[in-house]
Design brief:
Radius of gyration: 29 Å
Strand order of the largest sheet: 3-2-1-7-19
Strand content: 15-25%
Distance between the termini: 66 Å
Number of helices: 26
Helix content: 25-40%
């Protein structure tokens, strides 16, 4: 099998997924020749990020998941979507579509991917049974859950059959749909393909702590349905039975090799089109890439090897030498609050391999490194509960570890993994197969001086993003070798970092953007520096965010002090300190929501969010709330969001301190504090931790001896557990420590840097942070205390201040020439008793279809 040779004139790609998209992108980027490329995809969609499918249930739209449209809109490319290839006629070098069109090819690339399997048991096709593979699958799942829960009038019970990587993500998706979910796994542990038994047990505890049930060593033998054909339960081999309302199968994928089989290509007995290292099949005119391709008897359902095959195939079609090196099956779980990674020889199958293990069952942490028999070479590893070292350790696989393996597994005060000294062959970005040498080449040969340039040049960090931290450190190391430094410039208009700019504004006393940019910057500013200056000026001057020219600096949400939603309406979130609210307050919120037709939801921060307010309605809503004693909850700003609390000693028999009282005090103290990123606090009344304080930027946990203070807990893309800063603090000591921590963060953090990476980047880490806050090692505690005192003195409710200022109120109009006219583009339908934005299909002539009747839109 050989692919090298003259450039073909027409390449046909069957499949339009992520791997096909990468192939076309790679091919076009390597040549300016007048190619003709035809891409044929079955789905009625542009290629999208299947890896990020779970984010659909966190609010991401199909458009958010869409891949870059550039490659398929190139003039050399013809893209047929919603079209299926029915057969390949090799003797005529043609493919035939379901529309009867014959398309001739010089070279054919099969990128048909795989399909999600269902368990071969009775009842697998009952109504309410789904797979989790495509956007159509997840949209159908969401529609079913919404419809079925409305029919039954209760929260649904769901089951995910299959406890692998995809199964756990599907369970998180069901939980996001407000379904009580259980994962059923046939083997003795979750993620059995990636984790050993102790790691699987640790992961099980973490999953169960999220409220997801786990049942292992359970073989499903039958799915039962009611008379209407709706699934209602599962039977197991041990004779037990469990009720369920919805089932999601995640029991693996099967290669879509039916076209290849029918065309007589060599197919592996276990499935998949057999390819060589050049991605050639048994027909010299046909290549196969991605999940449909079987290499050395293996098909792997991961995107990284598919991308590698796509690059190889593109290079070979251009007559270049390239070969597929094999599968990198490193994985990282994408489930909020659960940190898991597996890489390299995780099961120590290499002869003489040794396991080095660190386990902390109380903290839910299990870490294992697999090393050579001399403990010098890293072979693989497993990280559960704390996978922060994944980006640093995975590139070292096959190379020298460079230190005592035990040091890499210890908690945060252990030895950090190496950063800039990776060998050239170390794989930094597995998604795009970019090595440390490739990044060094981009710096020295291509002149890249920032991460953005590295991404554009090599694609490293452009997929899942987990390697960006390592790329940054490598970049800094290489620039230092040239005598240059990694730029910390805020943007093209300011050569300073955010920290430097903060100090410059503080010392100069300037109070407007124009004055600051005239003195310290150039040009007119941009959407990067303007919000940063708005935050800095708000902190230092205490002025209203809409005062004077500074009003033009704000982000969309800050500009109107409400969160814009996907349909262009806004949500309103009043502050509810500590989650404590009187019955009278609840009545007011309910009446306001009812009067304005707002959708209401209790947030994860113990507040009530009201959705669907039009721009011109915001002042009316605020006035009702302010008159009832509420104020802005700052849900729209980079500032304090919430202080979550349990009921503590007020009601709970386990509580040892008044957690509600402390939470209210903290929220009222730090409300409106502008910062580089949003801030969340939590206060738990005992060590049972019902307020999840260790997942917050500042976490406070009560003990008999006083308050324990934790810092640096973050959710988001890279979750972090908070680290213990101090123990046994009294009320005054706690407030002073939090004051100084927050103000030190506000003074020194980079733009959009959360507290966890901020203090991790501090020289000396958590120990130095303690010295700054408690020992005044930098001599700035008086400044930090004074800054917090100014914040307390200058605080005002932004909603009330706006209501009192006619000039500010002029901003709140849907149309300049018709300020009270509702935006006609807003349309709604009723779901579960509340209004929600209507889909395009539900919008017909200004009317909305609801349960077979029409309802005129009147808001």
């Amino acid at each position: 099998m050989s692919s090298t040779g003259p450039t073909p004139s027409h390449v046909v790609v069957v499949g339009a997924g992520m791997v096909a998209h990468r192939f076309v992108e790679s091919l076009l980027s390597r040549t300016d020749e007048p190619w003709r490329i035809t891409v044929i995809g079955e789905e009625q969609r542009h290629p999208y990020d299947r890896v990020g499918l779970t984010s659909f249930f966190a609010g991401a739209s199909a458009d958010d998941l869409a891949l870059d449209g550039g490659p398929l809109s190139d003039e050399r490319v013809r893209f047929l979507r919603g079209v299926a290839v029915t057969r390949i006629e090799r003797d005529r070098a043609e493919v035939v579509t379901d529309r009867g069109e014959r398309i001739a090819y010089d070279r054919l690339v099969l990128a048909t991917g795989s399909y999600a399997a269902r368990l071969a048991v009775d009842g697998y096709d009952h109504d309410g049974c789904f797979v989790y593979r495509t956007l159509d699958d997840v949209e159908a799942l969401e529609r079913f859950v919404q419809r079925r829960s409305a029919e039954l009038g209760r929260r649904l019970v769901g089951t995910v059959i299959g406890g692998g990587l995809l199964g756990l993500e599907a369970a998180g998706a069901l939980q996001g749909l407000d379904v009580d979910c259980t994962v059923v796994q046939s083997s003795d542990r979750l993620m059995s393909a990636q984790l050993d038994l102790p790691a699987g047990d640790a992961l099980r505890r973490l999953i169960e702590q999220r409220g997801i049930g786990v049942r292992t060593s359970a073989i499903t033998t039958r799915l039962d349905a009611d008379r209407s054909g709706q699934v209602v339960g599962l039977e197991f081999r041990d004779g037990s039975w469990e009720r369920t309302d919805v089932v999601v199968f995640t029991v693996g994928v099967r290669p879509r090799d039916e076209l290849a089989r029918a065309a007589g290509l060599v197919v592996d007995p276990r499935g998949g089109v057999v390819i060589d290292a050049g991605c050639d099949t048994s027909d010299p005119a046909i290549l196969a890439i991605g999940e449909v391709a079987s290499f050395e008897g293996q098909c792997v359902g991961l995107v990284a090897p598919g991308y590698a095959m796509a690059e190889v195939a593109a290079a070979r079609l251009l007559g270049l030498e390239a070969s597929f090196a094999g599968f990198d099956v490193s994985t990282k779980l994408k489930l909020s609050g659960v940190d898991v990674a597996s890489f390299g020889d995780a099961f120590a199958e290499t002869p003489g391999a040794l396991d080095v293990v660190y386990a902390d069952p109380i903290a839910g942490v299990y870490k294992k490194l697999v090393v050579s028999d001399d403990a010098k070479t890293l072979l693989g590893g497993i990280l559960v509960g704390d996978a922060s070292a994944y980006g640093s350790l995975r590139p070292l696989v096959g190379g020298a570890l460079g230190g005592d393996p035990v040091a890499y597994l210890l908690p945060s005060d252990g030895v950090a993994a190496p950063t800039g000294d990776l060998p050239d062959e170390a794989l930094v970005c597995s998604c795009n197969s970019v090595t440390a040498g490739g990044i060094r080449s981009a710096v020295h040969d291509e002149g890249c001086t920032d991460v953005k340039g590295i991404k554009a040049c090599t694609k490293a960090g452009a997929a899942c993003g987990s390697c960006v931290g390592m790329i940054t450190k490598l970049l800094g190391s290489e620039l230092a070798k040239t005598g240059a430094a990694l730029s910390t410039a805020l943007c093209e208009h300011f050569a300073m970092s955010r920290r430097q700019l903060f100090d410059a504004v503080r010392v100069s006393g300037l109070s407007t953007f124009s004055a600051v940019i005239d003195r310290f910057g150039t040009g007119r500013g941009c959407d990067i520096c303007k919000p940063v200056l708005a935050s800095i000026l708000s902190t230092l001057t205490g002025r209203h965010v809409l005062d004077g020219e500074n009003a033009t600096l704000q982000d969309t949400n800050d500009h109107v002090m409400a969160n814009m939603q996907k349909d262009g309406s806004y949500s309103v979130v009043p502050r509810i300190p500590g989650g404590e609210i009187t019955p009278e307050g609840l009545v007011v919120l309910g009446q306001v929501a009812q009067d304005f037709g707002l959708y209401t939801k209790i947030t994860g921060g113990q507040r009530i969010d009201m959705f669907g307010a039009r721009l011109e309605q915001l002042p009316e809503i605020w006035k009702r709330l302010v008159d009832a004693g509420f104020e802005s909850g700052h849900a729209y700003g980079k500032s304090l969001r919430t202080v979550k609390s349990c009921v503590g000693s007020t009601w709970c028999r386990y509580g040892v301190q008044d957690s509600v009282g402390m939470a209210v005090q903290l929220e009222l103290r730090y409300r409106g504090l502008r910062s580089p990123h949003k801030i969340k606090l939590g206060v738990s009344g005992c060590a049972r931790e019902c307020a999840e304080a260790r997942g917050k930027d500042v976490g406070v946990i009560a003990t008999e001896a006083g308050w324990n203070m934790y810092v640096g807990g973050n959710g988001g893309f890279t979750p972090r557990h908070a680290v213990l800063l101090a123990e046994g603090l009294d009320d005054a000591g706690l407030l002073q420590a939090i004051d100084r921590f927050l103000m030190y963060y506000v003074f020194t953090a980079d733009r959009l840097q959360r507290t966890a990476p901020w203090f991790e980047d501090l020289e000396g880490g958590i120990d130095e942070l303690r010295r700054v806050i408690f020992d005044d090692s930098l001599g700035i505690c008086a400044d930090l205390d004074a800054a917090m005192a100014r914040h307390l003195d200058n605080y005002e409710d932004e909603w009330k201040a706006t209501l009192d200022d006619p000039e500010k109120l002029r901003r709140f109009a849907s149309f300049v020439n018709a300020p009270t006219t509702p935006d006609p583009s807003l349309a709604y339908t009723v779901e579960r008793g509340q209004a929600r934005p209507a889909t395009p299909e539900e919008r017909e002539g200004g009317r909305i279809l609801i349960a077979g009747t029409t309802l005129e839109v009147r808001r």
